[in-house]
Write a structure and sequence with these properties.
The chain has five helices and five strands. The protein is an alpha/beta fold. A five-stranded parallel sheet has the order 4-3-2-1-5, with helices on both faces. The termini are far apart.
């Protein structure tokens, strides 16, 4: 009898804790970074640090595969630095000229929420500024720092 009473008491306390936790979450609501549906559990950051078109196509393809596999429930960042910065530079200032297919993939992935981060340290080194970046690019202080911070936030790190 005492055992049944303890079991009931534990169930009651567990239920009470669950209700309190749900209430706290409802009051807090999602943070702006989480969006309306809450945080995604699928977070990936790709290192893009080469200007080779085949390498870039592979990374863009992998990002698309991840989106498809997780039914678009993925936060994907492509961190562009070093020679990879040229993916995010407008054609008139670009030393590399990527085909129409690559640029269309960047635009398409961006429409699905993929973020393309541009390393400001690399931009300084190659003498480009924000006005030279394509609209899909988001400047960040440093590509290396970006990779560290995103991994600390739970992003899986993918390097090629």
């Amino acid at each position: 009898m005492a055992q049944a009473k303890n079991h009931s008491r534990r169930r009651f306390m567990g239920g009470l804790a669950t209700v309190a936790g749900i209430g706290a979450l409802a009051i807090a609501g999602p943070s702006p970074a989480e969006g309306m549906m809450g945080p995604t559990k699928n977070k990936v950051v790709f290192q893009l640090n080469k200007s080779d078109p085949a390498y870039i196509r592979d990374i863009l393809h992998s990002a698309a595969v991840i989106l498809q596999h997780f039914n678009n429930d993925a936060d994907i960042v492509i961190a562009c630095f070093g020679p990879g910065i040229w993916l995010l530079v407008k054609p008139e200032k670009n030393r590399k000229h990527y085909g129409k297919f690559i640029m269309e993939q960047v635009q398409s992935l961006s429409m699905y929420g993929v973020v393309f981060n541009a390393c400001e340290q690399t931009m300084k080194t190659v003498h480009i500024d924000e006005t030279h970046l394509i609209s899909e690019a988001k400047p960040v202080f440093s590509g290396a720092v970006d990779l560290i911070v995103l991994q600390q936030k739970g992003y899986a790190y993918i390097a090629w």
